[in-house]
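Lay summary

Proteins are chains of building blocks that fold into shapes. Our project writes down both the chain and a compact code for its shape. Here are two examples, one after the other.
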Amino acid sequence: MNICADCLAVIPARKGSKGIRNKNMRLLAGKPLIEYSINAALQSPYVSEVTVSTDSLEIAEFSRGAGASAPFIRPAELATDKARSIDVLRHAITFYEQELGRHFKYILLLQPTSPLRSASDINTAFEIFLNQKADSLQSVSEAPAHPYLLRKMREGRLVSFQEGQEAHLRRQEMEQLYALNGAIYILTRDLLINGNKMVGDCNAGYIMPRDRSVDIDEEFDLKLAEFILGQNG
């Protein structure tokens, strides 16, 4: 299958991390975390180029060895824990256009903290995105808890999270809700650069199973991902 969708896949991987030190290079089943996202992107026929946006020479060198591009070192102001994904993407696209003379119609954002997302997930998400003629797409999974079941604690007493909600709903009566899992974001170059947005008015969704939606934020998440990988061989 040879489909090139004129798409730049951007994998943001700064060296700093509050939850897990040097998280993007932590080993998961013997491979650095970032390698999973690089491999998934390289295997997708919808991706024209895979680039890693990082402030780390170590991560840049490893990424090149794994088959990705790392043509720049991310500026320090875009490498803090307060840096926004949209600014990181705009920097990457602007660099490719102004410094390399390369232009892409679509951008695929792949967070390296979603190592269980597969090339098949990327392909299916892209098919939905293109078929719906969307200007953006976000991946989701079934929400682990319905807002009806959530409570707030006030002076030692539990109160409903949603004011005025109907009491005593059965699970079968609750509408299925979905939570963003952070694994896949697709958007048009026009939405990013001209609209200065990552989520457009025509925003499609791709539903992923929860066992491929693990987001690595703390040590427990690494253990969970290790377990799932072991179960899946």
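And here is the second example, written the same way.
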Amino acid sequence: MQIREILTLKSDTIHSIAPTDSVESAVAKLVSLGVGSLVVLKNGEMVGLLTERDVVQGMVKQGCDLKDAQVSTIMVTEPVVADADDSVDYARDVMTKSHIGHLPILDGGKLFAIISFHDVARACLKEANFENSLLKRYIKHWPE
């Protein structure tokens, strides 16, 4: 299964913020949207990724008062990315090895979507359930 296939199961909205926006406004946006990450865009191009984890790590590095800090001070500037034609297994492996919960997806070198580990897990379970049903059907009709 390709990443492109799991994108049909979710919204195609990419939530974003500017690198010059305040961390306070980023946190408010994360909370109001109920999401765990925001793509950081400058002139329509992805320049980073901001996750809940980045906010917490920023609090440790810069102190708990981050409200006036700019997003650019705590965002990941070179996030791990995948291509829409990569496999879901690749996404699962890279997210697990990199300890990340959100993965920007590129298509033709341009930002296409962002997926969460939850999206990947749901796709893997769906595929495993399908394979399981095929195996059960095969065993049930096993020639004797």
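What can we say about the second shape? The mean pLDDT is 90.
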